[in-house]
């Protein structure tokens, strides 16, 4: 574990393995430990970078509002800090939307995109209001009531108990003000649908078959929009296929990375 001061925030991160760089961005309201199965699998062949986003995990808690472009700028600052030029970049859920903003900001540095259980549309007015209300709830009540409400939408009801415990631990451990800031910022995200049609690197789209937040139809639409992409639907998984079904997720990811060379 290491940390770096980047744009006014301390970002805690792990940098494991050697080889081509693979940077993975966690979703809300998680931390970098969500990528543990992928780090264990790919650090043998790749330099795998995972970080706690600002406001999450062990990184600086930033209250107020944190927009996706700020998170994306942190990704760029971290890879600059680590001396990494070009790299493969992946993210899940909110992390996938951060990845899309990374491509918007510095696309030529990205060798390949991994978009897991995410979608590119801008938020609706109703959605923005809901995110503001949820942000206020997190600050008012803490993370536990929300985490218990959504646990079995994050993972399938029949998920391995250890996976459900890990996901619940991440959610209840998230700093409420940091998670609330991300919710407020995420409500202001731009629409990335046109951006996807202009992506010039290969992409992998992954989704859990039973994901209620980002259904398979969303993944199919991204796959159709991207000029060069593969689609993997993970059976028996909800919103966290990398944790719920790591063998299937890792197999799809390895095939994609092998293609990149």
Automatic annotation (TrEMBL):
Pfam family name, one: Abhydrolase_1
Task: Note the InterPro entries from the entry.
Answer: AB_hydrolase_1 (IPR000073), AB_hydrolase_fold (IPR029058), AB_hydrolase_sf (IPR050266)
Asked whether the UniProt record includes Hydrolase among its keywords, one would answer: yes
Concerning Gene3D superfamilies, the annotation shows:
alpha/beta hydrolase
Q: Name one GO molecular function term.
A: hydrolase activity
Coiled-coil stretches noted in the UniProt entry, renumbered to this chain: none
- What positions does the domain AB hydrolase-1 occupy? 20-246
- Carries keyword Hydrolase? yes
Query: What are the alphabetically sorted keywords of the record?
Result: Hydrolase
Its protein name is Alpha/beta fold hydrolase
Q: Which organism is it from?
A: Streptomyces mesophilus
State the taxonomy lineage.
Answer: Bacteria, Bacillati, Actinomycetota, Actinomycetes, Kitasatosporales
